[in-house]
Amino acid sequence: MRADFNRIKAAIPSIKFCLDNGAKSVVLMSHLGQPNAHMVGVNLPQKAGGFLMKKELNYFAKALEFADKIQLINNMLDKVNEMIIGDVMAFTFLKVLNNMEIGTSLFDEEGAKIIKDLMSKAERNGVKIILPVDFVTAEKFDEHARTGQATVASGIPARWMGLDCGPESSKKYAEAVARAKQIVWNGPVGVVKATAWDCITIIGGGDIAICCVKWNTEDKVSHVSTGGGASLELLEGKVLPGVDALSSG
């Protein structure tokens, strides 16, 4: 079974939809923008993204959320007086700025590289950054896990993770909100639900996708990407030719 067969199979619902709705012919063009040399750059009068492309972009958008929020923070530092940074993003900030022990809490290596630059920008712009000072912790990401408490000073024990802000942090957040005249809120400040069903799993790469099909494990993950190299370029933040053509039309 080859990766190309999986891609063709995944594209069949989009082809059928087009034909069932009056299309006389269907030209499939996407992936890395290399279908056939004579097709690249052709500006078709009618074009649309298929079901597979929509699913791919939706799932990879979830994987890119952290990078998007770093960019959001950078942009908002030109517009706000105070900024509360909570949830998983806070652990990356606190690890970099306070050398806090964060246990197995999520840490973003790439985002960590620009946190000091963000803090410098905040200082230049007179923006007050509010980070949590205490936390609800757990030994694992599970609704039945043992829980505990931690502070920035004590750190989070090894093999434990921070899942929510503590009472002192909540008080700081409430004071900032009470001072505000306008509030922009993006995402929760802690775990909303910790169940096995809350985890998003994306399988990328043609060979791994083949393994999922071969051993009938496609229903065990959120999404099996057929993108291969294109999915990697999407995660790198590059513009995919097929998506660009649809967006510019």
UniProtKB/TrEMBL annotation:
Keywords: Acetylation, ATP-binding, Cytoplasm, Glycolysis, Hydroxylation, Kinase, Magnesium, Metal-binding, Mitochondrion, Nucleotide-binding, Phosphoprotein, Transferase. Its EC number is 2.7.11.1, 2.7.2.3. It is found in: Cytoplasm, Cytosol; Mitochondrion matrix. InterPro entries: Phosphoglycerate_kinase, Phosphoglycerate_kinase_N, Phosphoglycerate_kinase_sf. The keyword Cytoplasm applies. SUPFAM superfamilies: Phosphoglycerate kinase. Transmembrane segments: none annotated. It comes from the Eukaryota. GO terms for molecular function: ADP binding; ATP binding; metal ion binding; phosphoglycerate kinase activity; protein serine/threonine kinase activity. Monomer. Interacts with kinase MAPK1/ERK2; the interaction is direct, occurs under hypoxic conditions, and promotes its interaction with PIN1. Interacts with peptidyl-prolyl cis-trans isomerase PIN1; the interaction is direct, occurs under hypoxic conditions, and targets the protein to the mitochondrion by promoting interactions with the TOM complex. Interacts with mitochondrial circRNA mcPGK1 (via its 2nd stem-loop); the interaction is direct and targets the protein to the mitochondrion by promoting interactions with the TOM complex. This is Phosphoglycerate kinase 1. It comes from Nyctereutes procyonoides (Raccoon dog).
